[in-house]
Amino acid sequence: MFIDTHCHLSVEDYEDIDLVIKENIEAGVSKIIVSGCEEKTIVEAIELSKKYDCVYVTIGYHPDQVDNVNDELLDKLREQLNNPKVVGIGEIGLDYYWVKDNKDKQIELFEKQLKIAEELNMPVVIHSREATQDTIDTLKKYKVIGDIHCFSGSIEVAKIYISMGYKLGIGGVVTFKNSNLYKVVEEVGVENIILETDAPYLTPVPFRGKKNSSKYIPYIAKKIGEILDISVEEVGEITSKNASQLFDLD
Ligand code: NI
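Above: inputs. Below: predicted complex with nickel (II) ion.
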């Protein structure tokens, strides 16, 4: 049994969502957490969670939405977070890769959402790109725990996040030949990891070039099992337990 803790499932990317869900279940991926991170995909993700038992949702405004979000939308987000299938806030965070000249605005939006997470006692899903130090400094101001989505940092950074109560989201990148992520996996072990695809992006080997899907989660688990010399079943079991606890899925 596997849980995909982070994917984007939208009619914009997938023609037949019924088929995607069916294929996930056939592949042993029993639960998926769909991330809605802009106004439209938040609504869409919540609708999917009503239609499919296996779909859970995290919602929150991605840093690339910084110019689109106002207080009204954040009030609406609070209401949307009341839905029982919404299990976390995210992906939220900081992204200095594309735009660097709006750091203050990004941090402001990030903090507003961390405040909501703290108040509602909900886990957060963190997007951090080329912004490690600011991400850590900002997170330290709030009593929250969560998931570092698509973790790609050093062993040292991994240990900081883990000490703050975070799990590392590991996905297709770990299967890439040029990735050093295996060193982090080796060091932190399966008890600090949750599985994710970030579908439709970051398709694992041997399917690179194809559109990603939660059904490929077992290939990520297999790679982690090889790195840690444990069975794919054990990877599935422990990472599912980690995810269930973090997002309170049961
Ligand atoms: Ni994502």
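The longest strand covers residues 86-95.
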